[in-house]
Amino acid sequence: MKRKLYKKLLQHLPKKEFTILTGARQTGKTSLLLDLKAYCQAQQIPQIFINLENKSLLAELDANPLNLLAYRPSQDQKTVVFMDEIQYLSDPSNFLKLIYDEYSHLIKIVASGSSAFYIDKKFRDSLAGRKRIFHLMTCDFEDFLMLQGKEDLWQEVVRIREQQEAKSLKIDLLRVEWEGYMLYGGYPAVITEPLVSEKIEILKEIRDSFIKRDIIEAGVQNELVFYQLFQILASQTGQLVNVNELSNTLKVRNETILSYLEVMEKCFHLSLVKPFFANIRKELVKMPKGYLMDTGLRNSLLNNFTPVNQRLDKGELWEQVVFKLLADRFGTDAIRFWRTADGKEIDFVLPDENPPLAVEAKFDERMSKIKKYQLFLDTYPNFKFQFATMQPWSEEFFRSFI
Length: 402
Fold this sequence. Notes:
single chain, 402 residues, alpha/beta, Rossmann fold, 6-stranded mixed sheet, 5-stranded parallel sheet, 47% helix, ATP-binding protein
């Protein structure tokens, strides 16, 4: 089964622009490159696959980017060059710029990479007009079911959504899967592992080993403080990120906290949601709210895989899930939150949608009291407002939001 992003990457394959695939480690970037490589082989499109964890290849391309030309299998046709872990090049921005400017008629590069590359300011500045970035997040619920070979359950979701009055004999099965998605998240290796104990071990490996590689590549000096900050953010899902408070708690400078927050964002583990406001005097809250990009990673950081209904933090976990749903659908940059100086708040605001959308996450529908949000509704009457609830569980869950 191929991820949904595969179709978009395939459509971009004939374009002159280089294709850059971003995302956290272990989200499936290499698998997507291999899927595209297989497509090229089937279509008899000249291609090569270069893994830059191969030190000899890395040294050769670092010594002279033009050494890449010698690996072309055909001198008559344009070659698609798949490059995995491109951040390991000593100067990936200059490498891509040189190849694009002088040899894009001969080579199309499709590259994946992780945090260190995208922190590099040269990547943002020097490759304008030469690349298109595709972001691979951890799996959404559709991919979650499809990776497990449960296409029938996803088709049931589609049927429920398309038929407003439809009832499902599989609604309880869908709840089991949904709660599994909330607890263990969307990393492909976690999804495809059938044993719960092994799912937890894989998440620990991602939390410890793979994130440690991000820490090393980003040049983080204090690994312990980084992890402590990560755990605090996991425990404070949806709360304001107060840098002064965090620096006092962890006994480090504000600049250190800000630097580590940037690393977490650039490694695609954290999203800092900015406030939305029209009335600066009454509404301006400068601090962002923090959400992790995967619930399984969050639960691993908290060492809490308690079933959803038994959790003390089920409201926070649900808000985290709603954020991920919105991020999958609209992208992280589209999401804001609304908060007044006296503490009135809407969890999620998408001002650029048509019509603009406001979403309040409440685990239990009984907590959905519209009067609490009347100030926002009066201030922004053009916004569509809705609650995102999980309980009571019914077919309406999939119609109203997913």
